[in-house]
Request: fold
Amino acid sequence: MGGLDPWRLVAFVALAGVTVVTRGFFFLSQRPWRLPHWAERGLQYAPIAALAAVVVPEIVMRDGALVQTWHDARLYAALAGAGWFFYRGGVLGTIVTGMAVYLPLRLGLGW
Reply:
């Protein structure tokens, strides 16, 4: 692990070059560039898909395996938070409701 060998340096420079070219490619055109309608529509769902990809595994998995029991405070907190969101809306109320269910179950019952 001492020093930087030439192949690593070449790999780093090549990766940096690919990154600059792919990110700067859209600045090379002289005319405005628009995505096709289907791509714009698909990108509307990207934030919720990314959020689901981060949140859902935290709710349904523990130590790299699916939760095997219903005695998990995260499941009930997620259901309560989702219920609040669909009933009243608002992110703050969703967080408060989820934590109001999670904390007593986790700290009080040890789930």
